[in-house]
Amino acid sequence: NTPSGIPYNKINPATGVTDYSSTISLAALGSLHLEFVYLSEITGDPIFAEKVTKIRGNMKRVKKPRGLYPTTVSTETGDFKSSKDT
């Protein structure tokens, strides 16, 4: 539940407390996206997949320096925060 729809990097499932970090790695973002879609499939509840549809839209929207995806994404704005490309 971030302003950008990009999830926080870590959350304690027992307490719901996040690490409130301002960035997430592109690799972690991709993994969470796949996990949430799969969670919707196995539970039959579309809410999890709906949460991560913002990730796809965001990745299409933001500028990609030199046409490549940088390694970190801001959880607040959804913009890329790294000068390293993948």
From TrEMBL:
Q: Which InterPro entries match?
A: Glyco_hydro_47, Glycosyl_Hydrolase_47
UniProt GO molecular function: calcium ion binding; mannosyl-oligosaccharide 1,2-alpha-mannosidase activity
Provide the species name.
Allacma fusca
Pfam families registered for this protein in UniProt: Glyco_hydro_47
Q: What is this protein called?
A: Uncharacterized protein
Cellular component per GO, a single term: Golgi membrane
Q: Which domain of life is it from?
A: Eukaryota
